[in-house]
Every structure is written in structure tokens, then in C-alpha cells.
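User: Reviewer 2 asked us to show a designed sequence for the structure in our supplementary figure. I'm pasting the C-alpha cells here. Could you produce the per-position amino acids so we can include them in the response letter?
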């Protein structure tokens, strides 16, 4: 790894941690901060750094955020979804046949959704649990639709970044 790649990784990790800290200080920005900070892990995937640099950036920014960010739920959201998903997306799109990519990404999302619902059901944030099976089903359908649009938006953002970032 070159010094340029390390410096870029350090700056991207600092930006990610600053965004997560902002999401912690301003609660209305929490979920958005996790998603926006996750875009930083996509940048090395577009450059020469590749998967290894993206994973190192993800690990460093998650560890630094765990030390600095006051609201640990923001860090958890970044570690479980926001920062990890661009890496998973890259790996799936690079290694899985095109007709199966959508289903692999949806499977990952639904495993996270099911785990979150189990945690809510066990007493963590019980007010988030919808009453009745119909509302729960609607919540799951809505979450999948939102994820679908997020995936499309992330793909478009990555394409835009690839066309506008200067070459190495």
C-alpha cells in the first residue's frame, strides 16, 4: 500500500468518524450519518486500493468511532450496515452472477432486518415493535423497498464518483 493510499484512507476515516459524531450529536441525523459515512468505504473500491484498503478503512473508522462517538447505536449502525454494505455490494457484484446479485443483497438486508426485529422483540427498544402481524409485514415490505432504492442510489453515487474523481 502506497503512502498516498494510506493518507487517503486516513482522511476518509476521519471524515467517516466526523459524520458519525455529527449523527450522534444531532439525533435527527443519526441514520443518515451512518449511510453517508459508509460511502467513504466505497472510495477505495473505485481506486487502486481495492478490497483490502476498503476493509482496513472500514475497520479503522469503526474502531475510532467506537472510541470517540458518544452514541454507540450510531457506531453499531455504521459497523453493521452503513460501512459494511458498500464492501459487501462490491464483493457481490464482482463475484456473483448478475441474475443472483439482487437476491444476495436482499438476503443480507433481510438477515439484518430479522436480527433487528429479534432484538426489539427481546426488549431492546420495545416501542419500535409494531402491533399486529399486518403492521409488521408492512414494515418489512417498506424496509425492503427503502433498501432497494438505497442500493440503486448508492450505485448511481458510485458511478458519479468514478466519473468525477481525478485519476490516481
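Assistant: Here is a per-position design you can include in the supplement:
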Amino acid at each position: 500500500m502506497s503512502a498516498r493510499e494510506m493518507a487517503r484512507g486516513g482522511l476518509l476515516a476521519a471524515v467517516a468518524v466526523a459524520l458519525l459524531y455529527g449523527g450522534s450529536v444531532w439525533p435527527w441525523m443519526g441514520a443518515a450519518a451512518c449511510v453517508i459515512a459508509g460511502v467513504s468505504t466505497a472510495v477505495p473500491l473505485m481506486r487502486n486500493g481495492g478490497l483490502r484498503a476498503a476493509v482496513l478503512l472500514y475497520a479503522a473508522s469503526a474502531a475510532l468511532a467506537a472510541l470517540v462517538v458518544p452514541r454507540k447505536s450510531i457506531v453499531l449502525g455504521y459497523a453493521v450496515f452503513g460501512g459494511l454494505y458498500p464492501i459487501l455490494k462490491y464483493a457481490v457484484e464482482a463475484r456473483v452472477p448478475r441474475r443472483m446479485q439482487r437476491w444476495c443483497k436482499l438476503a443480507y438486508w433481510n438477515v439484518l432486518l430479522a436480527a433487528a426485529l429479534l432484538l426489539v422483540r427481546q426488549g431492546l427498544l420495545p416501542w419500535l415493535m409494531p402491533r399486529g402481524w399486518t403492521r409488521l409485514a408492512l414494515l418489512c415490505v417498506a424496509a425492503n423497498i427503502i433498501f432497494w432504492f438505497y442500493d440503486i442510489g448508492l450505485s448511481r453515487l458510485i458511478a458519479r464518483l468514478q466519473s468525477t474523481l481525478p485519476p490516481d
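For the response letter, you might also mention the following. Residues 43 and 54 are 8 Å apart (CA to CA). The helical segments are 3-25, 30-38, 43-46, 50-68, 72-82, 85-95, 98-121, 133-164.
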